[in-house]
Design a protein that fits this description.
The chain is of the alpha/beta class. Helix 1 links the parallel strand 1 and strand 2. It is globular. The protein has one domain: 3-Layer(aba) Sandwich (Rossmann fold), CATH 3.40.50.2300. The N terminus is likely disordered.
Length: 151
């Protein structure tokens, strides 16, 4: 497992951003996953759901238009390689933080995501509260590994 990533070279975020809603965009080819996340974030509050994209194909344009704080990124989708999308975003949109949310928990995928600049990695098997907490932590500038990934 890699210890450092591109996120480590960035300036640390202030310990707390001013009270605001965290703007979240989901990139996942499964609309049921995106809908479930949207419903959970609406119940918890403190988030602005920007919607979801079925692939990373148009992600740069969508990010330019919507200005998300955190992107939840699946790794197993058709279209543009998600790792390339993460790397591109980390260099062109350094204020946007990508949190990988994948059904696959394998060291090589985690390593690739971290090398590309992801701020965290969660399994789709992690509980909803772990996801909510991870989004908040990543938004605050912390690197996060979900329970199923770190355990």
């Amino acid at each position: 497992m890699i210890i450092a990533n591109k996120a480590d070279s960035r300036e640390p975020a202030p310990s707390r951003r001013p009270a605001r809603r965290i703007r979240v965009l989901c990139v996942d080819d499964n609309p049921l996953v995106a809908d479930a996340i949207a419903m959970r974030l609406a119940l918890v509050g403190g988030f602005e759901w920007l919607g979801h994209q079925n692939s990373a194909d148009e992600l740069s344009d969508v990010v330019e238009r919507l200005h998300p704080d955190v992107i939840l990124m699946d790794l197993d989708m058709p279209g543009k390689d998600p790792f390339d999308a993460i790397e591109s975003l980390s260099s062109t949109q350094p204020d946007v933080r990508v949190l990988v949310l994948s059904g696959h928990v394998r060291t090589e995928l985690l390593d690739r995501a971290v090398e590309a600049g992801a701020w965290g990695y969660l399994s789709k098997n992690d509980d909803a509260q772990s996801l909510v907490s991870a989004i908040r932590q990543v938004d605050a500038g912390e690197f996060v590994l979900g329970p199923a990934v770190s355990g």
